Amino acid sequence: MGTKIINGLFLGVFFALCLTLSLGMLIAGPAPAGANEVLAQPPQVFDREGAFNADLLSDGAEYVADHFFLRQELISLNNLLSARLFGVSDAQDLIVGREGWLYYGQTLGDFTGTAALGPELENAADNLALMAEYVQGTGRQFLFVIAPNKNSLYPQQMPSYGVTAGTHDAQRLFSLLAERQVPYLDLFQTFAGEREVLYYAHDSHWTPKGAALAADAITAAFGGASDYASGPFGAGSHRGDLYEMLCPSAAFQDPETGPVYAGTLTISYDPAFDSRPDSITMVTQGAGTGSLLAYRDSFGNDLYPYLADFFGSARFSRSVSYDLTLEGEKVLIELVERNLRYLVTNVPKMPAPLREIAVPDASGTAESPSFNASGAPEGLTLARGVLPEEAQASGAAYLICGGNAYQVFRLADGAYGAYVPEEGPVSAVVCPVEGTLKTFSISYEK
Asked: Cβ(347)–Cβ(419) under 8 Å?
């Protein structure tokens, strides 16, 4: 076959493919987003001020690149071939492991120890201690639970990165919580005693049977007894969140199956709230007794049905700002291992604890905090600010409000927050500097 014929065939295939992708987009419409993608918006000829959009061509190119015909199918095919042939994928935040296993890329820092928390871990433990103190002070039970990253429990199928963390932040946090007598549940030990694999190979989460095991451990930690992990369980198909990242097109079916709980769960839902598993707030009534206030993340999607059945009433929330003033005889905080930084990011909604301390004379000044009474418990306002640069990275810090000392939640990057009496005023911040408490007065003059 001559060179001209070969070149002609190549050009013919190339233009046919281009026409297919472009005409298909016009006929079938733009391709949808896959998984959690945020795609380019349609280009605008004029901007909001009515001026001509100088970036019209580049905006149009980005839009076509994100929406061309068969985009998700072609991405899926490329990723699947790359994963099977070379053990890698172009999908963001996805790790291709051995034997078809997939891992969430944002857990790699925990796995290798390269993203270990420093002094913030001490602050996370102190913040949990403040939460437990408040909950227990109102006559309720408190429990903190970490849902393990999949590669913390099943590292065998992870690619070799040359180094893995000897001790993870979760284990270090458990030691700090034990020192502070904060009730916690070590699910790493719970799962370590099981020979059966209880996480999906193609998903970042535990299976319904793994969730049942966690639920049994949680009810036991609260002084109850359940045996959901004994089943019965059937088998069902499952499309993993990681497989969806690898193959965003639904045309590529996930071959993985998993256990499905086949027993009877007695659950009814308060119609005032959404009843979808991933809803922000869900209120349930179950077959048991007692009440539960549970803050959870995506691991709670398979966990909550067992707890909803076990308790007489339960409130499940995905809010990362824990409102501990809500009712619930048992208070559960479930947080996946990779998100432990959330403990030094958000201020729980509860009155700041009043402390008896010797307040030193002022030795400097501090920035004035911001105040926000919207959504705060009655009579309180949320004060947020930044500690002086010389303050230690960890250790108890206080706001002087109305002449009283209130301990604050210490957050990342030297920030703090606390719900203090609205009448105030906040006049100073007290924090440790080189092992000694120092007072920094606050001036509101501009």
From this structure: yes
CA-CA-CA-CA torsion for 142, 125, 277, 187, nearest 10 degrees? -80
Question: Can you tell me the distance from the alpha carbon of 375 to that of 227, in angstroms, rounded to the nearest whole number?
Answer: 39
Question: In this structure, are residues 242 and 103 in contact, taking their beta carbons and an 8 Å threshold?
Answer: yes
Among the listed residues 279, 302, 274, 141, the one whose alpha carbon sits nearest the alpha carbon of residue 211: 302
The CATH number for 354-442, chosen from 1.10.3820, 2.70.98, 1.20.120, 2.60.40, is: 2.60.40
**Tens of pLDDT, residues 268-316:** 999 989 888 889 999 999 999 999 999 999 999 999 999 999 999 999 9
Give the start-to-end residue ranges of the domains of the chain.
3-69, 102-344, 354-442
Distance CA 35, CA 383 (A): 37
pLDDT in tens, 357-409: 999 888 899 999 999 999 999 999 999 999 999 999 999 999 999 999 999 99
Q: How many CB atoms lie under 10 A from the CB of residue 165? A: 16
